[in-house]
Amino acid sequence: MTIVKMTNLTKKFGKFTALNYVNLDVNEGEVYGFIGPNGAGKSTTIRLLLGMIKATEGEAKIFGLDAWSDAVDIHKRIAYVPGDVNLWPNLTGGEVIDLFMKLRGTGNKSRREEMIEKFKLDPSKKCRTYSKGNRQKVALVAAFASDADLFILDEPTSGLDPLMERVFQECVMDAKDDGKSILLSSHILSEVEKLCDRVGIIREGKIIETGTLNNLRHLTRTNLLVETKIPIHGLSEFIGVYAMEEKNQSLSLQVDAEYLDSVIRHISQFGIVRLESAPPTLEELFMRHYEGAGGAL
Amino acid sequence: MSKKQFKHTWMLGRFQLRQARLRILIWIVALVLITCSTASAFSNLYKNLEERQAIAQTMLNPAMTAMVGPSNGLDNYTNGAMMAHQMLLFTAITVAIMSVLFVAKHTRTEEEDGQIEMVRSLPVGRLSNLSATVLVVIGTNMLLSILIGFGLYILGIESMDLEGSLLYGAALGVTGIFFAAATAVFAQLSENSRGTIGLGFGVLVLSYLIRAIGDVGNETFSWFSPLGIVVKTEAYVHNYWSPIFLLVGLALLLIILAFYLNSIRDLNSGFLPSKPGRIHASPFLQSPIGLALRIQRTGIIAWGIGIFILGASYGSVLGDLESFYKDIEIMDALIKPVEGFSLIEQFIPVLMMVMAMFCTIPSLMAIFKLKGEEKKNHTEHLLSRAVSRTKVIGSYFVISMVISLGMLLLAVIGLWSASTRVMDNAIPISTILETAFVYLPAMWTMIGLAVLLVGLFPQFTGFTWVFFVYSFVVVYLGGLLQLPDWMSKLTPFGYIPRIPVEEMNVMTVSMLIIVAVALMIVGFVFYNRRDIIG
């Protein structure tokens, strides 16, 4: 069953086109990763889904209801965490959590305490004294203490430390196990890889890549830097090897994940002195996409 | 305390001056200009002793004493005595506010924001920042004293001699220094800048109240209030300098205390325990309207008190109105005499119009708070949950309407309760209520305009204030400035009948209400249709 369905969703601000015929579906019980650089249109898409702004063209449906005209009914069943959580400076975190839970209408008192404990939040402090990460925790506690059916999370971990990031990931997995659907916008690829079943990549208002993680895997290339006792030869005949470059004694190259094994086997014959590997950055993914499409940035 | 503790004080002082030079300049220029122009306005307005004595008569009541201070020079109410009596206290309060804000900003606020941490990591003494702030604020207040002192003297107004003028200036300066010193202590006690400013203003308000009680009743009380001590200088009347020295001495003690407390505490800590806040929201807070009310609470209460005091202060002069205003030409232009009505009956609608306009300000602010919330990305928290847009704007709208009614009521109660104390034939409260409440449709039209703009053109809400100032100038000063009649017909306030002098005009007033409702409906409809930015 499709929980979120966007059809030709377009949003123009004056002459600027923020979203350009976006089609995107989130199915029931899945975690959908929505990735893209800042300013690509992630937040605009989410604002449209929340009925905060009105689409210029196309439509967005959640639970089969219209995101704009049925906003209030939809919102009874969703939980939203913005990327930049701005709270009222003179209210405490605890007060804000209660307010948020009450405004949605549903929520669980004991889950509230459990989440506060889990995220190690001090709810007695005024929001003015909270750091960015703590303000995000307030929004996360309010979201995960609810029994929403759809979670819309807009870069929710940008201020969290690694420990809290893990707690967050646990919460997402728990929600998924309960059959909830999650739309997770992020530009941290590792997080998306860990959590998401399907991924959509947005750039300059257009969805440029979408599919399951396996599908996406062809996009991930590992960067390798090797130094060997004797110079390597024969690598250029391998498939899945790109951007090979010799630097002094060492060789740098990019390898598609599925060919990593055969490439490493080959290299090891030449006596490895040093081997460094780095995951591809989102930026490299975009570069790759555009190279593949034959266009330049 | 060794000398090392103060290393680079001068450099930090220069740095603070560099940061605050524009602010300091604006405060000083504004205070000097207002003081000197009031002094010359007094001397132009009241040309002879009789006129001044007529004013003095209106000042001879407890309400006035409570408000502006003891009435020392009333037997011989020279221009100087008038200045010291009517202006010194309020100017001193303004100087105190300036000093509290300055010290809080450069001590606790900078500490809270982490700037002091960076400065302290450099080879700078532990007390250097505080000493720099103290030096700058003392310097600012001394400069202010000298400029006001000589400024008043240079005006060459009879009875405003050099000594009196210098004392007047010094009285303002020491008030500033005293409250600066107190704030320096509070900055050590409280952990955050809000608390520091709160304590500073709290002591200021308390000083004002203790002085009011002392001046009206038991005079010993006044000596426990710095503001009470300041008015004991009796500048231009007796010229007592001892209160100045007393306040300087007290300020010095406070500064030493502040240095001591600063030297023994950790960075970012305070001596007052910061009490943990509520971990649960009260049932009251858990609704859009409860939230809207909570975030505006302090402001609304402050406005309520202000409006009530304004009403009471107008009420307290009503008793001597007849004798007071009949010789003053300027009042003829403001209030055109109408046969068959007493001066007071003609005066009240003018007062009420001014107060209705003042009451409009917090009503409009309540609507514009919604726009501010949107700018701060706060409305998304409501709209992303099961709260409709109508409910969000409706909450602010209801609060605004209640404010319009409540503030007007406070003004009426203030005016009425003060006037009954000073008048032989008290005005019935029903008359005042009628005069006041007939302004509600005009206020609602202004609220309607605000709702319309928030719903339709949120970027142009500032237009409301321009229109508001236009309304005030045209309706209040229209007669004085001899503006054409049609200009007052461009503002809702120009349509309100001045009861009891004029007849109630049901037709016009109902039209205004219809316009107001129409504006509100359009505003609501469009708020439901437009993009919300945050």
From TrEMBL, chain A:
Domain ABC transporter positions: 4-229
Molecular function, one GO term: ATP hydrolysis activity
Pfam families referenced in this protein's UniProt entry, alphabetically: ABC_tran, DrrA1-3_C
Signal peptide residue numbers: none
CDD domains listed in its UniProt record: ABC_DR_subfamily_A
Matches recorded under InterPro entries: AAA+_ATPase, ABC_transporter-like_ATP-bd, ABC_transporter-like_CS, ABC_transporter_ATP-binding, DrrA1/2-like_C, P-loop_NTPase
Family according to the record: Belongs to the ABC transporter superfamily.
The protein, known as: ABC transporter ATP-binding protein
From TrEMBL, chain B:
Keyword presence, Transmembrane: yes
Biological source species: Psychrobacillus soli
Record-given protein name: ABC transporter permease
Keywords: Membrane, Transmembrane, Transmembrane helix
Transmembrane segments: 83-104, 130-154, 166-189, 196-214, 240-261, 300-317, 347-368, 393-416, 436-456, 463-484, 504-527
